[in-house]
Amino acid sequence: MNNRATFTRMEDSTAAEWQVIGGDFVQFTKTLPDRVITHLRLLENDYGGFPVDRYTHCLQTATLAARDGRDEEYVVCALLHDIGDTLGTFNHPDIAAAILKPFVSEENLWMVQNHAIFQGYNFFHHLGMDRNMRERFKDNPHYTRTAEFVDLYDNPAFDTNAKFMPLQEFEPMLRRVMARPRQSLYLAALQK
Q1: Which of 49, 61, 76, 145 reaches 20 to 30 Å from 55, CA-CA?
Q2: What are phi and psi of 126, to 5 degrees?
Q3: pLDDT in tens, 14-49
Q4: What residues does each domain of the chain span?
Q5: Does the model's pTM come out above 0.85?
Q6: Coil, helix or strand for 50?
Q7: Contacts of 169 (CB under 8 A, 6+ apart)
Q8: How large is the average pLDDT for residues 134-156?
Q9: CATH of span 15-190
């Protein structure tokens, strides 16, 4: 960390400086799972009026998916689907999707990005909203997958008596999924 670039404008940077920055970037990417786990733990004791805190809800959702035999990527999506609640109060699925986007398939990304609208079927009518808002996506190829995610894992994960897996059991999955970016603006540079 002592070797740093000296430019004041990126247009004045040099290839040598980008070698330094790139080296630090590679090391920084290795700690991404740790930062995500730290942020997920911020949901602990954050009830927001719900029967369980948001952290427990995420663990219950992931546990249900894991026990149902879903693959690691899907389980990690279940674990992180509400991680955006603290920073994206009005758009939490966008935050979760942004974190997961480099690492997951299109169908899992779409599922996370749109899960709140699909979950809305279960409660929007209590808020004077259209509970059938998800129907605008009825022709989307990921509609059924997302509806199933909500029905099987997200919706029933507010159980105060549920037995669920601890975060430590999900950490290896999270690390493996986040070790393999599939898409990124910087992916080509990382593969050099």
Answers
A1: 145
A2: -75, -15
A3: 999 999 998 898 899 999 999 999 999 999 999 999
A4: 15-190
A5: yes
A6: coil
A7: 66
A8: 98
A9: 1.10.3210.10
